[in-house]
């Protein structure tokens, strides 16, 4: 069900705007959580990989740091993807125009972090030395 603004009273229009702003804040909470997971996964991977390179053995499995980093990055990236889909569906229900939705700061930020998560996952998975 799509809401048409011309059929609404001012109080209803303001309620829709408040709900849209709450959805934006929820999306930014997804971004913060995903960013924490992605950065923590990458940091664990790099720190333990450097320690392993210097001859320290911190885990019994030599692929443990890599697998843990990949897991955390994957969780952060997938959760952000789910948050973006949820945000898109909420805005669509509220009748917000999708073409302008892509240009909002929250959507641009979440898209950038989503791409970063995919990039970092690929670099660790294929052992590319980018950083």
What topology emerges from the helices and strands here?
Blueprint: H1 10-53, H2 64-94, H3 98-101, H4 105-125
Helix pairs in contact: 1-2, 1-4, 2-4
Textual characterization of the structure:
It is a single chain. By secondary structure, the chain is an all-alpha fold. The protein has one domain (10-125). 76% of the residues lie in helices and 0% in strands. The protein contains four helices and no strands. The protein has helices at residues 10-53, 64-94, 98-101, 105-125. The longest helix has 44 residues, at 10-53. It is elongated and about 70 Å long. It starts with 9 loop residues before the first helix and ends in a 6-residue tail after the last helix.
Rg result? 20 Å
Element order: H for helix, E for strand:
HHHH
Unreliable parts: none
| Major sheet description | none
Number of domains: 1
Overall helicity: over 70%
Outline type: elongated
Structural class of the helices, strands and pairings?
A: mainly alpha
What is the arithmetic mean of pLDDT?
A: 87
Tell me how many strands there are: 0
How many helical stretches? Answer: 4
Report the span from N to C terminus: 47 Å
Query: Into which percentage range does the β-strand content fall?
Result: under 5%
């Amino acid at each position: 069900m799509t809401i048409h603004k011309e059929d609404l009273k001012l109080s209803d229009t303001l309620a829709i705007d408040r709900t849209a702003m709450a959805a934006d804040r929820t999306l930014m909470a997804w971004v913060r959580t995903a960013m924490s997971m992605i950065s923590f996964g990458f940091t664990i991977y790099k720190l333990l990989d450097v320690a392993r390179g210097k001859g320290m053995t911190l885990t019994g499995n030599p692929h443990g740091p890599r697998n843990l980093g990949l897991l955390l990055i994957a969780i952060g990236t997938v959760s952000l993807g789910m948050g973006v889909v949820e945000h898109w569906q909420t805005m669509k229900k509220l009748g917000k125009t999708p073409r302008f939705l892509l240009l909002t700061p929250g959507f641009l930020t979440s898209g950038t972090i989503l791409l970063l998560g995919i990039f970092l996952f690929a670099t660790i998975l294929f052992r590319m030395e980018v950083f």
